[in-house]
Amino acid sequence: MKSKYIFLLLALAACTERPKDSEETSQALEEKTRPFLWNNANVYFLLTDRFYNGDPGNDQMFDRQPDGAVLRSFEGGDLKGVTAKINAGYFDHMGITAIWLTPVWEQIRGFTDEGTGKTYAYHGYWARDWTAIDSNYGTYEDLKEMVETAHRNGIRVLMDVVVNHTGPVTDIDSQWPESWVRTSPTCTFQDIETTTKCTLVDNLPDIYTESDAPVELPEFLVNKWKEEGRYEQEMKELDEFFSTTGLPRAPRFYIMKWIVDYVRELGIDGFRVDTAKHTEAKIWSELKELASAAFEAWKKENPDKKTGDQEFYMTGEVYNYSLYSGQEFDMGKGEMVNFYANGFESLINFAFKTDAHKTPEEIFSLYSQILNEGDLKDYSILNYISSHDDGGPYDLNRERVFEAGTKLLLTPGASQIYYGDETARPLVVEGANGDANLRSFMNWNELESNAEKNGYTVSDVQQHWAKLGRFRRDHVAIGAGVHEKLSDTPYTFKRTYTQNGIEDKVVVAMDLSGTSVSVSVSDVFADGTELKDYYTGQKLVVENGSVTIPNPGTLALLGES
After folding, report:
1. What integer pLDDT is reported at residue 28 of this predicted model?
2. What is d(CA 198, CA 191) in angstroms, rounded to the nearest whole number?
3. Do 459 and 342 have their domain in common?
4. Catalytic residues, which ones?
5. Contact 527, 510 (CB under 8 A)
6. What contacts 69, CB < 8 A, 6 or more positions away?
7. How many domains does the chain have?
8. In terms of DSSP bridges, do strands 482-487 and 492-499 run parallel, antiparallel, or are they unpaired?
9. Distance between CA 205 and CA 166 in Å, rounded?
10. How far apart are CA 226 and CA 232, in angstroms?
């Protein structure tokens, strides 16, 4: 990597976005200037290896073979594939405002075999070299192109980061030095110490993130950089980083330098932090400070490439955290940690997959109260129905796909679509074991053929999610606003947002039927206001406090265009 390390907090004046060139479409310009709030974000989470194959030439690199157990080998997805789908308008069609990628740096080259068959590091969580892009995913230039393409289309990029562990040891992947990692004991998750000073599982060396003791680089990494002809450059950058920041050459700061490089050089908009509760909480504040300074420097140097002037964003995976915990998370034995006070604007909400079984009004009113008046006022959460390592998702067998989309995308807080939620991608795969079930290749073939499943077609499901997604993207009130029920029959509610110079309001009516329906909006919109129903695409005018929708869908998603 080539980078300068001037880690200063920069105050930037707001600027008006301009088209990069005459070919930038008005739609792309609209996406770059549309109001955006992270607590209303519609995040698309994808496994880079399982989304789309943009370059078959990199499907098996480092002599990796397609001989793993079911869904445990690399399968061809790559960074060029993500870029191709951005360019094809897929994310725009879905109303996506941020893409969360699994880690794309170089993974262990070998495989593990824990009795379930060979498993390769296709998922991205087994780091070998944080400074290089794994060849199975593509190149550094591929990542740069993907980020710039996303930004041109008004889409932020979240990088998934791992600081607390390396990849496993294999026959061809050596262990990091003892000064860097512990290999025992295995965590028992009883309190802070037994959750942080331990290995998550056997053969997953744990970084000494609590240590400030200086360490030397691993010999294998030095030799690798020399073979690749970049040892002198990497060492120069490390010397400059530690000299400029005054930080000790402790394990965590090497890793922080390496991952913050991507922010400083590419303008990565935020981090999704993996296994956040398995390190000392204070280190996330350290990472946030470094990343924020790097992001501000990048924005100042690249005013034509940024998507807005938001600050650097961090959301964290604190396993089993729920919004009901508020700001304090119980690590066991009553030992509480406030992750929001340690660098995070948001945490992943593990409660939503269960709450999704409640009625919409129960979910919406409770979440709105907690986020607007309760312990999480001024913070946010990231809701999801399925994920890459959650064996108990909502709607495991994809039987309630329309309901799932409606609840997820209309619930206060940010939403996380896991790739294939919107296309009913199977979460149970014959022959697969454990998490592998959740990680099948994106079912593009079913979408293209409009396959029928469980009484619905895949295209119909995707269109339902897309309409809701575009409604959320265009109206920050949905995730960030205050919820209020307007009527029971049909169930109708409003959301309003008035902060930070932004005013937005919407009305939603659910469970509609018939050839025509009237929806009262008098509490929200004045007579004569022209509204758009984002579900049917119809333009409507408020008359006598209501709008009449001919040939309505099952939902009315009403807002000003």
Report:
1. 53
2. 12
3. yes
4. 274, 317
5. no
6. 116, 117, 118, 119, 432, 433, 436
7. 2
8. antiparallel
9. 6
10. 8
- Record the pTM: 0.94
- Quick count: other Cβ atoms within 10 Å of Cβ 529? 15
SS3 161: strand
Where among 427, 451, 480 does a domain terminate?
Answer: 480
**Cβ–Cβ under 8 Å, residues 186 and 199:** yes
Residue 242 φ then ψ, to 5°:
-70, -30
pLDDT number for residue 9: 32
**469 and 520 fall within a common domain:** no
Closest CA to 480 of 558, 407, 352, 379: 379
Q: How far apart are CA 552 and CA 293, in angstroms?
A: 49
**In which residue ranges of the chain is pLDDT below 70?**
1-33
What pLDDT, on a 0 to 100 scale, did the predictor assign at position 561? 81
Strands 502-509 and 492-499: antiparallel
| CA distance linking residue 264 with residue 474, whole number of Å | 29
Burial class (CB in 10 A: 0-12, 13-18, 19+), 374: middle
Task: Examine the fold and report which residue of 452, 480, 508 is the final residue of a domain before the chain moves on.
Answer: 480
Residue 508's φ and ψ, nearest 5 degrees, are -125, 135
Q: What is the pLDDT of residue 306?
A: 93
**Range of 560's domain?**
482-561
Which tokens sit at 539? Answer: 């333009």
